[in-house]
Specification:
The complex is a heterodimer of chains A (285) and B (252). Chain A is mainly alpha-helical and 285 residues long. Chain A has helices at residues 10-35, 37-40, 43-55, 57-86, 103-106, 108-132, 197-206, 218-247, 256-283, and strands at residues 139-144, 147-153, 162-164, 173-176, 180-183, 189-192. Chain A folds into 2 domains: 10-86 and 103-133 and 197-283, Fumarate reductase/succinate dehydrogenase, transmembrane subunit (3 helical TM bundles of succinate and fumarate reductases, Up-down Bundle); 139-192, no CATH class. In chain A, a hairpin with a 2-residue loop joins β1 and β2. In chain A, α1 crosses α4, α1 packs across α8 and α7 packs across α8. With 252 residues, chain B is α+β, with helices and mostly antiparallel strands. Chain B folds into 2 domains: 6-116, Roll (Ubiquitin-like (UB roll)), CATH 3.10.20; 124-251, Fumarate Reductase Iron-sulfur Protein, Chain B, domain 2 (Orthogonal Bundle), CATH 1.10.1060. In chain B, β3 (75-76) and β4 form a beta hairpin. In chain B, α3 packs antiparallel against α5 and α7 crosses α9 (238-251). Classes of the chains: A mainly alpha (285), B alpha+beta (252). At the A-B interface, α1, α4 and α8 of A face α7, α8 and α9 of B. Chain B: InterPro entries: 2Fe-2S_ferredoxin-like_sf, 2Fe2S_fd_BS, 4Fe4S_Fe-S-bd, Beta-grasp_dom_sf, Helical_ferredxn, SDH/FRD_Iron-Sulfur, Succ_DH/fum_Rdtase_N. Chain B: Belongs to the succinate dehydrogenase/fumarate reductase iron-sulfur protein family. Chain B: Its cofactor is [3Fe-4S] cluster; [2Fe-2S] cluster.
Chain lengths: 285, 252
């Protein structure tokens, strides 16, 4: 009696690629909706969203599922590619692959590797800063009849949402733990400041600094890198989206044309909207 | 009315003495090839020339030369069964080529299909996959039920028949960039899974055939769809999807 191998068999690997891939497609939609606030929302709205995304327990669980999906998709894809190379030890002298398959479908491993490089860069640029470094907190400047003063905005618990910058670390208040406000003498925590991810993002794509001390105008460099990476993602999705349905056995004359259409629309639209964001930030002030 | 003419071609053919030796591409000039001849007849003509020159003729597989046995293989100019669709190599004609063309002729390339000699490969891996589950166990003790006495929906019968049209030639494996045999196995699983006689052993069949397929060293399907386009019998990718469904059902 045959035993199924839900991890090892060639078909099971397809299921895992498909399930993790489709989950990551859902993730893209959520991530895009959040990022579009950089264009259509206020800085405070974006920072509130960032605070929610890094602290809400449900979001935390989802984020771990996302990390695991990426890892699984990468490892599984890597194993598949190695096995597939081994399946043809001697290659053809003359090939004509364009005659029967699309560029995307033949280059999923290369495209996927490029997307992985992008994810690593992108997480270093923002995710790592948000999680592991001390970030500037969001402030606003209020002009009170010629007297200009800066205020921190906080998610305060029934307290004032504004704290005068001059008060902090001065007589009454201190900041600890990357954004928590405490009263100085008795150390009572009473509010949390917003890490200014909005400002970090704006500065990142507008930076005129040299990257690694060599590449001039790193803001422009990263804008181009992000836009090109989205094009690569588009090619990956062009094949990947509809391929996932086929792998899960969902292929019928009735539904497959619709799935192909949605897949191609998704592959164009989602990376396009993502790519607009760095372009918008870089070329506006 | 015949529009046939004669053309001169250059052939670049894979020559390999046996499984153990290393092969290589050899170049041959062949003149006065009628465009009305089939590709295999052209190879016959080349072999005649080689024999006259006291050289070893090129070994290649062929049998019915009617496009139904699946014996002839050949990767011609980068495509399984050459530059035409819905045909095996015996149905490929020299009118598809022009005077002065260089034509590459290579054997199927797959770890599971080792080269026996020149253009002949060992496709018994397919036989072993069939033996692992591509059959229906029938009581032959004299009370066999006539197949037609079981009602089968027309749609299912048509789909099963289309899957059963697979001639096991191996073009799907040869053309797949991953060397995957899933179109073949998908067709064989489907032709039984769709019919009442096959449903009894459906679970074991798909698990055993897929296990054997993996053991033979075929690659993994990445849904490029190349197999469906190169298949001489037009076996649809739907059969791979059906196998994926059957495998999931059998695994749970």
């Amino acid at each position: 009696m045959a035993k199924s191998a839900l991890l090892k068999s060639s078909i099971a690997k397809k299921y895992w690629m498909a399930l993790t891939g489709l989950f990551l497609c859902l993730f893209l939609v959520g991530h895009l909706a959040g990022n579009l606030q950089l264009i259509f929302g206020t800085p405070l709205q974006f920072n509130e969203y960032a605070l929610f995304m890094t602290t809400n327990p449900a979001v935390k669980i989802l984020s771990y599922v996302t990390y695991i999906s990426i890892l699984f998709h990468v490892v599984d894809g890597f194993l598949l590619t190695i096995q597939n190379r081994k399946a043809r030890p001697v290659g053809y002298a003359k090939t004509n692959p364009g005659a029967n398959s699309s560029f995307s479908s033949r280059n999923m491993a290369v495209l996927g590797t490029l997307v992985l490089i992008f994810i690593a860069t992108h997480m270093t640029n923002f995710w790592a800063k948000m999680h592991f470094t001390t970030m500037p907190l969001q402030t606003i400047t209020i002009d009170n009849g010629g007297q200009v003063s800066s205020f921190y905005i906080t998610s305060g618990w029934g307290q004032d949402r504004f704290i005068n910058v001059n008060q902090v670390d001065g007589e009454n208040l201190i900041i600890e733990g990357n954004g928590f406000y405490y009263t100085k003498p008795i150390k009572v925590q009473f509010a949390e400041g917003y890490k200014d991810l909005h400002k970090i993002t704006m500065d990142f794509f507008r930076s005129k600094e040299k990257l690694f001390g060599v590449i001039p105008n790193e803001g422009l460099f990263f804008t181009i890198f992000y836009v090109l990476s989205m094009a690569v993602l588009g090619f990956h999705l062009w094949h990947g989206f509809q391929s996932a349905f086929q792998s899960l056995g969902l292929n019928s004359p009735k539904w497959t044309p619709t799935i192909h259409f949605i897949g191609k629309a998704f592959a164009v639209l989602v990376p396009f909207l993502f790519a607009i964001i760095p372009l918008y930030i870089h070329f506006t002030k | 009315m015949s529009t046939a003419k004669n053309i001169n071609i250059t052939l670049k053919i894979w020559r390999q003495k046996n499984t153990k030796t290393k092969g290589g591409i050899e170049t041959y000039k062949l003149d006065n090839v009628s465009t009305a001849s089939s590709f295999l007849e052209m190879l016959d003509q080349l072999n005649e020339q080689l024999v006259n020159d006291r050289k070893e003729p090129v070994a290649f597989d062929h049998d019915c030369r009617e496009g139904i046995c699946g014996s002839c293989s050949l990767y011609i100019n980068g495509r399984a069964h050459g530059p035409d669709t819905g045909i095996t190599t015996c149905q490929l004609h020299m009118r598809m080529f022009n005077d002065g063309d260089t034509i590459y002729v290579e054997p199927w390339r797959s770890k599971a299909f080792p080269v026996i000699k020149d253009l002949v490969v060992d496709r018994t891996a397919f036989d072993r996959i069939q033996q692992a589950g591509g059959f229906v166990s029938v009581n032959t003790s004299g009370n066999t039920i006539d197949a037609n006495s079981l009602p089968v929906p027309k749609d299912d019968a048509d789909k099963a028949f289309m899957a059963a049209a697979c001639i096991g030639c191996g073009a799907c494996v040869a053309t797949c960039k991953n060397g995957s045999a899933m179109l073949f196995v998908g067709a064989k699983v489907s032709q039984y899974a769709l019919l009442p006689q096959g449903k009894v052993e459906a679970t074991e069949r798909v698990l055993n055939m897929v296990r054997q397929m993996d053991e033979e060293g075929f690659g993994n399907c990445t849904n490029t769809g190349a197999c469906e386009i190169e298949c001489p019998k037009g076996i649809s990718l739907e059969n791979i999807a059906r196998m994926n469904r059957e495998y999931l059902k059998a695994s749970l």
